[in-house]
Amino acid sequence: MQDNLLKIKGLRTYFFTRKGIVKAVDGVDIEAKRGKFTALVGESGCGKSVTGLSIMGLIPSSIGKIVDGEIIFEDKDLTKLSYKEMADLRGRDISMIFQEPMTSLNPVLTIGRQVGEPLRIHSSLSSEEIQERVLSILEMVGIPEPRSRLKSYPHQLSGGMRQRVMIAMAMICQPKLLIADEPTTALDVTIQAQILDLMLNLMKKINTSIILITHDLGVVAEVCDDVNVMYAGNIVEKGDVFKIFDKPSHPYTWGLLRSIPRVKNRSRVRRLYTIKGMVPSLLDPPLGCRFADRCDRASDICRKKEPPFNSIEEGHLVKCWLFA
Questions:
Q1: Cβ(24)–Cβ(14) under 8 Å?
Q2: Disulfide check for 220: which of 39, 139, 151, 256 has CB 3.0–4.6 Å away?
Q3: Does residue 137 form part of some domain?
């Protein structure tokens, strides 16, 4: 059994606003194995990106903070590290591909300078050596004519090329953990496939662990090893990708999978399944199970008491009273 590179226990990240406290991440447990693809999946606003930013130590201190929990990375609790210690890890051992490359890349700096920045911070290589490493990683991620692209600016590249640049910048120091926040959003299907293949190849080549943050279950089924299903700041189901897709147990996971269009029986046109109701406000989350008001199988206890994690089978856990 492979050991865990990252283990998150009881993570709570809150934002303090004029309207009240937003409990964006509220008691999350996640594990990421070495050299494996781990998915964090759920609809928009459920806390996926905040979880990724919490791991990176990038929660803006002016409005939010980690109020409880542990983020154990190679026996170090990241929540206990100083700003300098976290800065030493960030980019070298832990990297992140942000959701929108056009706003994440600096528009006034060249591609060569931005991709080489992690090496300038975390290594003692000379300028010539850094340039050669930059050329090598740009070629590895499939940038055509990489030498001519060194002096290009982000606006001169297509969306797919900018995403490749973001991957190159995140991978140039060969990190042990890569967090990919919706890396294929807004890209066409062909480019999506290329980006996913690229990440898989890089993972195998340098044994990087990847946490993929997404709402696309098709992508999860294609590339991931383990899945964590997130709803309203909580993990509601987690396990091996085959177990989650073959035997979805939480009503929310079941609803997500039923809402995917099917290729079979195209002659019989059916309305897609929809999950009724709305996601609860994280300013004032309900007691008990946060999915209870949208669940067809909810009982009184679901609205009064938060369910524990229950084991469906080895390696498959669900947070639901139906399995208590």
A1: yes
A2: 39
A3: no
Provide the domain limits for residue 315. 4-93+175-323
157: its two tokens: 């590249």
pLDDT (tens digit per residue) in 69-96: 999 999 999 999 999 999 999 999 999 9
**Token duo for residue 129:** 């050596």
Residue 75 lies in a domain: yes
Give the pLDDT band (50/70/90) at residue 1: very low
Q: Is residue 232 part of a domain?
A: yes
Looking at the structure of the chain, the number of domains it has is 1
Phi, psi dihedral angles at 315 (to 5 degrees)? 80, 10
Name the token pair of 237.
Answer: 């189901």
Helix axes 159-171, 111-122, angle to 10 degrees: 10
